[in-house]
Amino acid sequence: MKTLRTIKQVSEYAGEQVWIGCWLNGKRSSGKIQFLQLRDGTGYIQGVLVKSEVSEAAWESAQQLTQESSLYVRGTVREEPRSPSGYELLVEEVEIIQLTEDYPITPKEHGVDYLMDRRHLWLRTPKQRAILVIRAQIIRAIQQFFDERDFTLVDPPILTPSSCEGTTNLFHTKYFDDDAYLTQSGQLYMEAAAMALGKVYSFGPTFRAEKSKTRRHLIEFWMIEPEMAFVDLEESLRIQEQFVSHVIQSVLTHCRKELETIGRDISKLEAIQAPFPRMTYDDAIKLLQENGFDVPWGEDFGAPHETAIAEKFDRPVFITHYPASIKAFYMKPDPGRLEVVLCADMIAPEGYGEIIGGSQRIDDPQLLAERFGEHELSEEAYQWYLDLRRYGTVPHSGFGLGLERTVAWICGLDHVRETIPFPRLLHRLYP
Ligand code: 4AD
Ligand code: MG
């Protein structure tokens, strides 16, 4: 077997001969010189063959290559200042693995449905690759942030007997003879974990049977959910703004090239530094009414409302103290004003909407028990959750960041469908 180098590694081999395993992205030829655009997943490099300098076999193999053919090439790494990577490969030998015929994704424009049906191939294009690299860096930065601050990673279950975020979009399945639901949020379990470990976070898939078709909603999405004992809403907000700033700065440090590939306006991301502005729900309502929206106090915000508010700021904004009636059962009422809760949504700039939902949790057992009745939830199913308030209850807070909306914002994408390798959307389960 050949010793292969990756395209990412070639800078370490300037002037030397290497073998690379790759695919043909495209090619052009002048008759005397062939230029091969090669990709191996780690990057792109141009392979150059000069007819008068290579064997006939190498020249002819290169001529046969079609888009997405797989091959090994041997060549000498040469510095080339005009190339985006700074290097090119002077090809001496071409070993074809497979000649691809009729590759369905060509450099011309394709419609979104066409591409979504071929998502497994669409991933090979430079933009989709760049998005997945940035997604991986975001995940790395998230884990780094919490690991460095002594949070313990805890995995909540995926199959659950009850709901966390209301019953309207529960994803139902059977659990032998019983009913079960795919988790909407690991939060309730993370509260149990916080009482055992202090500061915890989860990172996993969550499911919502969203019947609406929007550019912000997925059926299956990934959430980061920190939960913290002895932390109030105010401290939670400080952690959230530090956290999101850290993620952005980390992507700016490690993914410059990928941000350029997708054409992101980097100056907009550079502005994202803590602290973030805050606004109460009351003030948000006022601001919306002043801007011509007919939205009464007590109503939840939709995408146009969030966008109108976000437009006033160059960084994410917290909207705090929503009416209890439009928020989840577990949120703690503001002791000075019981009709609002100690919660905050973080709204991203540029119209990307809510990326974080969080709150201080009810710590009083009596009040929590009353909430089950008001929200028509069976108290029986939540006895274990009530135990957390019966046995050593403490003030605690937590939040959930939606990974795909965060990726959409950082990458400046029109739709969340490109932020996850294989999106699950209303009416789309294939591939
Ligand atoms: O605001 P949500 O519903 O909050 C919770 O689930 C809390 N239990 C979290 C917690 O406090 N531990 O969802 C949190 C975030 C949203 O802000 C949004 O970014 C994302 O999850 N999200 C979705 N992302 C994509 N598609 C969907 N259908 C989403 N629903 C929520
Ligand atoms: Mg929310």
UniProtKB/TrEMBL annotation:
MF terms in GO: asparagine-tRNA ligase activity
Name this polypeptide is given = Asparagine--tRNA ligase
Compartment list: Cytoplasm
Q: What is its main location?
A: cytoplasm
Please give the family membership noted in the entry.
Answer: Belongs to the class-II aminoacyl-tRNA synthetase family.
Q: InterPro entries, from UniProt?
A: Aa-tRNA-synt_II, aa-tRNA-synth_II, aa-tRNA-synth_II/BPL/LPL, Asn-tRNA-ligase, Asp/Asn-tRNA-synth_IIb, NA-bd_OB-fold, NA-bd_OB_tRNA
Q: What is the lineage of its organism?
A: Bacteria, Bacillati, Bacillota, Bacilli, Bacillales
| EC number(s) from the headed UniProt entry | 6.1.1.22
Query: Taking every annotated instance into account, which residue ranges of this chain make up the domain Aminoacyl-transfer RNA synthetases class-II family profile?
Result: 132-431
Record note on quaternary structure: Homodimer.
What is one Pfam family matched by this protein? tRNA_anti-codon
PROSITE patterns of this UniProt entry? AA_TRNA_LIGASE_II (PS50862)
